[in-house]
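Subject: for your reference before the review

Hello V.,

The reviewers asked for a structural picture of the protein, and I figured it would be easier to keep everything in one thread rather than splitting it across files. Below is the amino acid sequence we used in the manuscript, unchanged from the supplementary table.
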Amino acid sequence: PPPPRPNSSIYVTGLPKDTTTEEVSAYFSKCGIIMEDLTYGGKKIKLYTLPDGTLKGDAFITYFKPESVDLAINLLDESSIRPGEDVGLLKVQRGPAGPRVQVDAAVLKKRRTALERKLNWQDEEDEEVRAASKKAKRYSKIVVLVHMFTLKELDDDPELLFDLKEDIQEECAKLGEVAGVAVYDQMEDGVCSVRFKSPESALACVKVMNGRFFGGRRVEASIYDGSRKLHRAQERNTGEEARRLDAFSDWIEGFGSDDEDDDDN
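And here is what came back from the structure prediction:
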């Protein structure tokens, strides 16, 4: 008997009920070339349907290379096919190897040659695509909030920096477990970031916070894409940070002086 064929298929659940073969192909092609159906033509993607003909949300996808299976599982499992939309997350798992299909040898050779040529073109871009996919997954739990404060407000109220972090932590904890909050006190457009434990919580935060008014300003909320460098005082201007810490110390000492004056009276 012929040796077992390496498995190059994945089984996907959690797809939007209005998805298309084209959308699935575009998203999962990030991890490699999808095999062509040597019998019927087109991509080897099967979207499963319910008895009434509507999509079930499951799909069976076959890649040209078995290595693409592990890549798809590692990069696209628990990701969203439509980032920023509330369509849920995908579940990507290894699929069973499909049955061998008898195809005319000449047709098989012609199509396989075309696939090999396409594969050679894509191999040059694979490393860049993988790096971009890993970065997107890493940032999927981080929400950036813009217009949360002004630099003048930070200068006028030394305590604001600490209160702001606490307020954001408390508010965002209603949407999911928060891993950390950062206030970027050198950015003129009042930027804060919130790192959640899960992408679902991050998406919920964007949905709730985007367009909301805070301190008379309309907040812009989005998933961080890594394209913008976020700066805190200690990263860019240690003198400015020292000045603010001195102001805060003076503010604290002012309370102590008031207490001493009260005691003297």
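For the response letter, the relevant points are probably these. Residues 9-138 form a domain with the Alpha-Beta Plaits fold (CATH 3.30.70.330). Residues 234-238 have pLDDT under 50 and may be disordered.

Happy to draft the paragraph if you're swamped.

O.
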